[in-house]
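Below is how a single chain appears once it has passed through the pipeline. First comes the sequence as given, then the structure the pipeline wrote out for it. We keep one example in the README because the format questions we get most often are answered faster by looking than by reading.
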Amino acid sequence: MPQKTDGLHAVLSYPAVYDLLQNLLGARRSRTRLIRDHIRPRPGDHILDIGCGTGELFSQLPAGLRYIGFDLSEAYIEAARKRFGDRARFECMDVADYEVGHDQQQKADLVLAVGILHHLDDAHARALMRTAFAALKPGGRFISLDGAYVDGQSAIARALISRDRGQSIRTPAAYHAIAAAEFGTVDGQVRTDLLFVPYTHYIMECVR
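Resulting structure:
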């Protein structure tokens, strides 16, 4: 899993530092707009959140959802469990190890991967797509958000994105190709209005 782990990137492994930096950059506003415009959860939805971090996204979701968050960081998962208790389920595991049952009642309405694909090489990204597709109910949606390189991008945005911990930042076309290998319906949108700093995100909405 390509990822920078030195210097400031190592400090971000601490949950409190990670959350502080994210929120200073405008992550709370970003999550609000992502939920409102793209995730659009309905009461009772079953949500799987791949790479849930410390659970900040869950903290902004409406009540009445069935939520399971996955992350590889034991520190992040422990922080989420302490904060949210039994309001949600948080698992320290690779989502590839999550057992997807055949019972449609256990399938998800939404699978989220917020800021995850740009940490994965193509092989691992395709594997995540397969897992997401298998976990969804028919008509269920996969939503992803990642930094992206686009034509006409500001120098500041490109510089900030190039310093991300993830080392597999792609163009919208490259993200789309990975999703389209598994999903028949893939819609994508470039957004530059999510953070307080110049930054280019690409959001995909894929329907099973």
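The domain at 8-94+105-207 is CATH 3.40.50.150 (Rossmann fold).

See the next section for the split statistics.
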